[in-house]
Known about the structure:
Elements: H1 27-49, H2 60-77, H3 85-89, E1 95-98, H4 100-105, H5 111-116, E2 122-126, E3 135-139, E4 142-144, E5 159-162, E6 165-166, E7 186-193, E8 208-214, E9 222-230, E10 234-242, E11 249-260, E12 265-266, E13 275-288, E14 291-305, E15 310-311, E16 344-345, E17 351-369, E18 374-393, E19 403-406, E20 409-422, E21 426-440, E22 443-446, E23 465-467, E24 469-487, E25 490-507, H6 509-512, E26 528-544, E27 549-560, E28 582-598, E29 601-623, E30 629-647, E31 653-671, E32 674-675, E33 687-695, E34 697-699, E35 702-713, E36 716-720, E37 725-731, E38 734-747, E39 755-764, E40 772-777, E41 791-795, E42 800-808
Parallel strand pairs: 5-8, 12-16
Antiparallel strand pairs: 1-7, 2-3, 3-4, 5-6, 7-8, 9-10, 9-42, 10-11, 11-13, 13-14, 14-17, 15-41, 17-18, 18-19, 18-20, 19-22, 20-21, 21-24, 22-23, 24-25, 25-26, 26-27, 27-28, 28-29, 29-30, 30-31, 31-32, 31-33, 33-35, 34-35, 35-38, 36-37, 38-39, 39-42, 40-41
Amino acid sequence: xxxxxxxxxxxxxxxxxxxxxxxxxxxxxxxxxxxxxxxxxxxxxxxxxxxxxxxxxxxxxxxxxxxxxxxxxxxxxxxxxxxxxxxxxxxxxxxxxxxxxxxxxxxxxxxxxxxxxxxxxxxxxxxxxxxxxxxxxxxxxxxxxxxxxxxxxxxxxxxxxxxxxxxxxxxxxxxxxxxxxxxxxxxxxxxxxxxxxxxxxxxxxxxxxxxxxxxxxxxxxxxxxxxxxxxxxxxxxxxxxxxxxxxxxxxxxxxxxxxxxxxxxxxxxxxxxxxxxxxxxxxxxxxxxxxxxxxxxxxxxxxxxxxxxxxxxxxxxxxxxxxxxxxxxxxxxxxxxxxxxxxxxxxxxxxxxxxxxxxxxxxxxxxxxxxxxxxxxxxxxxxxxxxxxxxxxxxxxxxxxxxxxxxxxxxxxxxxxxxxxxxxxxxxxxxxxxxxxxxxxxxxxxxxxxxxxxxxxxxxxxxxxxxxxxxxxxxxxxxxxxxxxxxxxxxxxxxxxxxxxxxxxxxxxxxxxxxxxxxxxxxxxxxxxxxxxxxxxxxxxxxxxxxxxxxxxxxxxxxxxxxxxxxxxxxxxxxxxxxxxxxxxxxxxxxxxxxxxxxxxxxxxxxxxxxxxxxxxxxxxxxxxxxxxxxxxxxxxxxxxxxxxxxxxxxxxxxxxxxxxxxxxxxxxxxxxxxxxxxxxxxxxxxxxxxxxxxxxxxxxxxxxxxxxxxxxxxxxxxxxxxxxxxxxxxxxxxxxxxxxxxxxxxxxxxxxxxxxxxxxxxxxxxxxxxxxxxxxxxxxxxxxxxxxxxxxxxxxxxxxxxxxxxxx
Length: 809
């Protein structure tokens, strides 16, 4: 094996402790948590000593202080933007909350992707079972996320936020799931289907908005810390400290780290595709006489090895060891799920790819109430994102792309403000946002053992293929919406948003690679710029038919800037003169049901909606068998029904269920002179389902919480890279069962509240079902040989076991 710049040799073994393990969590963080635990615990003790003794006299000043404390606690709670059942019931759009029970169903190390899989209409594909592994997700068929997958249509049409701050790369529109690897930092996930109202819409909300809400500062001090152990060497640690409310200040500090091996492992040398992640988050809120101001920060770093795609069936002459430089087969087991192991990967010396995603975010929310009528909400933020692909591919020896070093980055600064005006029959919101972003697409392929036609060896400085385009972007929007109370129970919200997208493209490859050959840069278009201004109207109507039932309908239009990135596509291979924004027209109608304390419907919630999304000017990128790239545009139609419900019907029983049914097809798609209109959009399951039940009961001083749940993903068409078009071939449906048992043990009593230790035993894929969660037809360029036309894919995770223990105080 040849070592190149930035490449790290792997020594036989698996996940290592020390550097790369828990030691990577900085000592300062550990010290901060140690002091925080002591302070928070002391605060709980102090609060207990300030209570009024039984039978003692009442101090009027103490009563006033308690009333003020209660008011402050309510004011602090309003800074938590997590959706509630009541908020969803009063909304006139399709939205849900992925709450505590659904987050638990994701498993202790599932990360953002695992949590999102609990929503109706959501599909998740990942080559690993932990948060550090990249995943591709779709909501009602609209894609988001890096995952190295082929044939995704318009990837990047979903907005993702952290505590209300956008995390997507404004240039590519993409967001990577490893940016949120630790669910212990997350208290809930708000999901808005479709563009939503103008006040919640971002620059890439065409298909929806996913809002991760981290743990928030609270009025009472406390915290928790815990550990997780599980299959494939999984080890994790997390901790959260809350200071409580003191002199108007309240803060929270949370962190987590996990390391694991993958379930796809080489049977030849034992390489286990290890991964590691760490994340830390902090936020402080200061209550003001008429509002609040906060400061938040979040840092996450995830590193994982992504396994190579595995042929579903053997290919003649293609082994796990690949081919010599003359094309001869290197002896070894045939590479496929049936011959080299269903979860068998490639040897480290033949193929490995380490992927890193890092996010650095700081933001300042401000909320001011000028009167009972007028309020201002403002958020200023800065985000920096790094992505690194360290790829070694010796499957076809002698190729000039043995190494890939792909290290793009993006930096974004922005501000969003909203004025609210609460009038007798109108609730008006008006505001906008502005952001400036710089995105660099740097990448280089090389092989020091291969020389160019001019006799120069390919190195990182003189690569065989490279790029370094820069995108400077100014995005802005201004909006106004007015919720009008027409008559009792009936309201309408007309709105309009004006969106501005400004992009300047500059090819600086000669600056970043001064020794490189210009002929090896695929960015063929000259430097250019574009500006687009679009008007986005919307209207929703809500009618509360009864106390428990509300009907709604919404129609909205949204636009998104042409997606950029890589060495092909808009501005780089396609001239800017032919570019137009992607347009989405979303129509939905549905109902919300919320019932409390009526028979067995003790906390019954149900949401049912029909949606119709028409997307035009979508960008589709396809790599053909000869390595060239086809950039095509098309139009597609997505329509379906989503249903979500939950209840606590009797005792400690909790039941939940989410069902999605969808059909999606291309209205217009032409490539290579062949029209494929009418074909199904790939990777949109016909049905999705998650359902489960848990029962909490008390016995012998402990609380028991057994849980059983299932996920079903319907059949879906796959993509054919050989033809550059959707395939009639489908990926079979699959159904997975999971189970867990939680035990809660009270520990001590410091302030009238018992500290507690919670232990959870989880089994995911309880029946150990074998299934493929992704597949595509290769053009032959991925593995070489005579693999063109073969189906490659990723198997889903087998049965895995986890045990986690969490102590809260």
